[in-house]
Model the fold of this input.
Amino acid sequence: MPLDFKDFQEKVSTGFRPWQRSFEFWVRAVDIYTGYKVYCVFQVRVNFEKDEKKAEAMWERQHEYAADKVYSMCSDMGGFFLKIAQILGKPDLAPAAWVRRLVTLCDQAPATPPNMVQLVLEKELRKNVDEMFERFEWDPIGSASIAQVHRARLKGDKNDVVVKVQHPGVQELMMTDLRNLKAFALFIQKTDIKFDFFSVCKEMEKQIGYEFDFKREADAMDRIGTFLRKINRKAPVKVPRVIPNAVTRRVLVMEYIDGVPILNLGDEIKKRGINPDGKMAAAAKQNILKSLTLAYGQMILKSGFFHADPHPGNILICNGSEVALLDYGQVKDLPNALRLGYANLVLAIADNDHARASEGFRELGINTVSLCSNEQAELFKLAQVMFDTKLPPGVKVLQPFSEDSSIKKVAVQAFPEELFSVLRTVQLLRGLSVGLGINYSCAEQWRPIAEEALYLAGRLKAEDMKTREQSKRGLFRRIFWR
Done:
């Protein structure tokens, strides 16, 4: 049988691609890492610099230099690194230079060509596109790391739908990226930052693996939507409804929700002639954050099953400041013990109870080793950094890995993998609040929900809840309108 050279070349190229991608990651990651390490040699000079503004300007130049490299790596390599950009591009966590560059990568993954989209659709749905859809817009509304979405209309229907189509071949590349990231995390936690990043990456690997099954995503969307509608007179967020008999592992057809991406909220406010610094704009932002925080408090503490990816690309603002929450590929079902343990920690943070926070860490299985004398105070600060949205007075950018940070004073030796989704959700909510210009405590707002969860589980007495009745009344108003 004659050798098909093109077929042979394609197989070699496919087999070599993970190695090539791994090599590219390590070259770029080491370059960024060593850039900061070399710059740290000059930190003494920065510390001796009497002019604080000049010292900040020196670090800003380094951040801008590194931001270009991080942006290039995420943009060029795509795949999982677009998700890394979403995690790092938060105004409360990363340097401002990083945020300015990385925030533009939301929904900017390379799109799959129309002919490939058509092949996937017809193979998965077992119908010609023309048979199923009256209209199909081949230019995608958005393209992310795993899939892209198109606006369409089904035959015989008056309402538009969204068709989510998985990029062919993306799963293998993303799993390669995650293996490399796990190795890098292991290196970082042994050399620089005493935090169990390896367990975090393992949980990310598990969660990302679920995202390739759109049937699972459809079930999650139905479950969360039903839950929020059932326990509220009006659900705090809109959840798209799944179109029956139009879901496969790689294709998902759902209700189209019209709205403005939250990243474009400022432009939309100006376009409508509203003063972005006025009372009307402030009220809209407060309502948006209030809706999101209430929804997440109910999902995490009341149900335990929650949407675990509230980055800006997944949030739409509809008429009347209503919020729509999109993309249910990443969801988490917390074991009951962790749900109640987290509820207990929420009360500790809300009540500024250092001893209870220490107990909460132990109950959740977060193992720490003190590297300072005032362990309990630093452990409480660490709990706030990890599991609350509020920034300390006067702080605009949270830098959890700076030399005076609690994470440098209290080493986290073991972190439960299943708790990572809660951690990431709180961090993303904080990023949204900073972006909206509202500094608030999600722990304070979630206190009534946490109390109810613990009371129903028999872990909180009725008389203890009564002592907090005053805190419950007007809680939302006090947090968002002060």
User: Anything to note?
Assistant: The longest helix spans residues 5-40. Residues 265 and 317 are 8 Å apart (CA to CA). The first strand starts at residue 133 and ends at 136. DSSP finds 21 helices and 13 strands in the chain.
